[in-house]
Amino acid sequence: MTKYDEIINDYGLNRSQKKFCKMPVKHNIRLLAPAGSGKTFSLLWRCKYIVHTYEEKGLPAPHFLLVAFTRAAKAELEKRMESDEFSDIHATVRTLNAWGWEQIRAPGKELIDSTQDKRSVVNHDLLPICQKYELIAKALSTPYGRKSNSLRFLDLIDTFKSLGFTHTMTAPEYKAHVRHLKDLGLQTFMCDVEERICALMGVRHEDDKTKKKAVSDFFSFWKKAVILLKSNNRYTIEDQKYWARIYFEEQAQANKYPQGAARYTHIMVDEFQDINPLDFALLQAACVYHGQKKDKVYLTIIGDDDQSVFGWRGTTPRYILHPDRYFGVSFDTCVLDTNYRSPRSIVEISSKLLSHNKDREPKEMRSAVKGRALIKVENRRKPLPTIEATMKLLDTLVKNKGCRSVALIGRRQVSLFPYQVLLGADNIPYHVDADLDIFEGEAMQALQNILQIVYRSKDDDVDNPAEALLTILDKIYRYKIPTKDRDGILDFLERAGADTLPEAVSILRKYGKPIKNVPVDQICDTVMSLLSVKTVYEFMKRIEEDFRGLEKDYNKVETDTHYKEPQFFRLTEISRRYGDNFRAFYRDIEKARKSGERSRKKERDSIAEWMKETNETAIHLVTATRSKGHEYDAVIILDVNDDEWPNHLADDMEEERRLFYVALSRARQYLYFVTSADKPDSRFLKEAGLL
Asked: Which pTM does this prediction carry?
């Protein structure tokens, strides 16, 4: 037994982890690492084994590139490498974007990340090219078009990079690459991209020939745009990887390779199941560049095809399922077969669920956790009783001394919203990421403003009735009243001198002309129906039915995710409990907003540590995709009905099943599925053997 064998035995690696660590150091390896299997621990011991082997054979020390999927994962790897047992590993730890940017960054190069800069890129930098294409020029010909379409064009420009297209491709090469995307299982995604192009260029309902020309024109425009932005030193987020890929390919073609410490001997990529075609092309080019002509760089890909859940971003599990086919080299496979997170009962239902997927690598998993998890399906008849029952369940878990962390996991952000209000109302601290927090957006602030106006109006306590009326009018319409018209209305109301809001409405009836092409009497009737509501529930129904300015609107999504998927109907569900107490409703919304703000002053891990120190239970509100990489003592999966799990709009049932697996596999001790009896239970519950 070698010294290394003694060390890894002392550190308790299991059989499959040891097998992975001791695989030949000059082989390409595919490590399949299901949830809770200790992949980070195993990866670092694999690196240590390679260092030890090189040392034994008298070879120069190996140099590793460790690619993490997120900055949080990168930080975790770096933290673990600070320990004494891994101090001899010489590694660069980066996300793919950060590493790509390091390859091409130079003085004068600007990374575009703000909304203003993104609009400027399309409306200024790319304007000369846009004008050469009739349909593109038309889409950007008006102020409204430039505001609403510029970000969509830039998003499509980056999407083409993500899909692996290059600016040097000819028309035949473009068609060949589209066929390649089909082989990757991305045909539906590519069709969606082409539909987005046609919609932007105003040819959605035209014949196929016209649509093909629109896509062809866009690709021609795209190639010119990519080159122009580079010449202007303007780089998008995807350019960090795109131009690094091009750089490696050009350097290899010119026989220019890195030397000495600049060259990596081993590249190890985590979360490989979630890479897109650009990520793959960059890694492939990096392997050629660092492998040089006679030497080789050895690639280790780590991930779990059963956790591939970002197909909506153009990722595919095919790369990790068939690496030999796509890289053109052979890979040895190792599977980590022990779950250290969840008891056998959770591992068993996971296996039953995943067995219904065909496009996967079968795995036999066992649990190292003693005992059985408590698994329960909670069924309620109506949305409000379901929410209240879930709050009672949450209260029970919080009082459980053995439960230190609880996650409420939704398929979408909309499922989390009611619990923010109720937790905030009860002064219960929780963590929610800023981009999942509807209270951060303009729509919720507008709702609060209107709510405050309504309840103050009932006491004739509105400070400035004219301004208050305009605040309401701004959300009756899809967009705010233009400044010129607004000033005219305000002047008309103020000259009449209304003392109350109803008086201001009566005065507005005499305005004598439509407002944004709507008869003024019709507008006034809408306002009065809002002011006359008796209960909070009636108020929320009026908001849902009459206020177009709070409806779905993709042109506003950049500033507030509410407009992508309006969520006030969930607030309507819990509004019944407030009766006619408008002030209490407003107070609880405000408390929820402040609670979210306080939680984000600390990082997620800091929140957990703080709650541990204060003997509190850490509560997290997360979506299923955002829960990846985390684990909790208790997991409550929300809205487990057949229109949500799977989502009724989804066209990839296997990915929906994988997403459900990701959510349930976060649990360590307690796992609850919350359903409503007025909707069919999710088919996934039956597939997992829970019904």
From this structure: 0.88
